[in-house]
Please model this.
Amino acid sequence: MTAVLVLAALALIAGLMLVALAQKLPARSEPLVDAINAELPQTQCAQCGYPGCKPYAQAIVRGDVGIDQCPPGGERTRVRLAQLTGQTGRESVTATSIEPAPMLAVIDEERCIGCALCLPACPVDAIVGAPQFMHTVIAAECTGCELCLAPCPVDCIALAPRDPKTEIAA
Model:
């Protein structure tokens, strides 16, 4: 009887270890999700309504959303996603379906107090500065995602339309 109890205890421990490992190890990836994710701009800006590019790619594969929800990717990304998925990209009509004019975060440097709250909010590290010093935006890196606006306690960050005539090509 003792041997049976020992074996049962060992089996229970092994089962619990397998459950713990299954939760820690990454799940098998889907090739289509990976291919779609590779075409997305990886800004993790959440403008598509998802917290990052991979969750958006997963939603496309599930059929929850169309391929036209990525403003930073624009028309070029939509065309690539259409080739991968067979969608035209105009299946859904939502607020983000219309490609907005490209925007750029602009910091009013005279009002900036150097709190540095905008730095971690920027998913592409387009804001430079240090605590207690003025911050500025690297225009070529900024995706206009608006994530830096909310954390600013003095509202010194605004979005402005990009002017392609004055920007240096990246």
Observations:
- The first strand starts at residue 103 and ends at 107.
- Residues 91-97 have pLDDT under 50 and may be disordered.
- The longest helix spans residues 2-24.
